Amino acid sequence: MKRQRAERDGRRGERRAELYLMAKGWTILDRRRKTPVGEIDLIARRFGTVAFIEVKWRNRAEELAYAIDARRLRRVAAATEAVAHEYVREGEDTRIDVILLAPGRLPDHIVNAWMP
């Protein structure tokens, strides 16, 4: 039951992140892109940049400080490396972003969260 609730809340958070990005002019290219090495929650394009985005939803804003770590970002980076060629056009930049969400607060969009 707890796992199902977490999954539902996570999907809801991803949808909110998607709406936030679209309001900022991003085009959503893909959602929940699975690869053999990990999953990318959202892939979006704007102004010659393709962002591979990890979304984290927490029920309490205080928990967001612990929602993302180097291990999770390494997985997203590995997944990005595996599929970037499918989304990125010649001359476009890529980056890995994180969007942190909690009830009652605006999304926290961390740009270039992963820089190896």
Describe the structure.
This protein has a 5-stranded mixed β-sheet with strand order 1-2-3-4-5. Helix content is 31%, strand content 34%. It starts with a helix and ends in a 6-residue tail after the last strand. The radius of gyration is 14 Å and the shape is globular. The chain has 116 residues and is α+β, with helices and mostly antiparallel strands. A hairpin with a 2-residue loop joins strand 2 and strand 3. The model has no long low-confidence stretch (mean pLDDT 88). One of its GO terms (molecular function) is nucleic acid binding.
Write a concise keyword list for the protein shown above.
34% strand; 31% helix; 116 residues; Restrct_endonuc-II-like; UPF0102 protein D6858_12165; Trna Endonuclease, Chain: A, domain 1; 5-stranded mixed sheet; 2 helices; UPF0102_YraN-like; alpha+beta; tRNA_endonuc-like_dom_sf
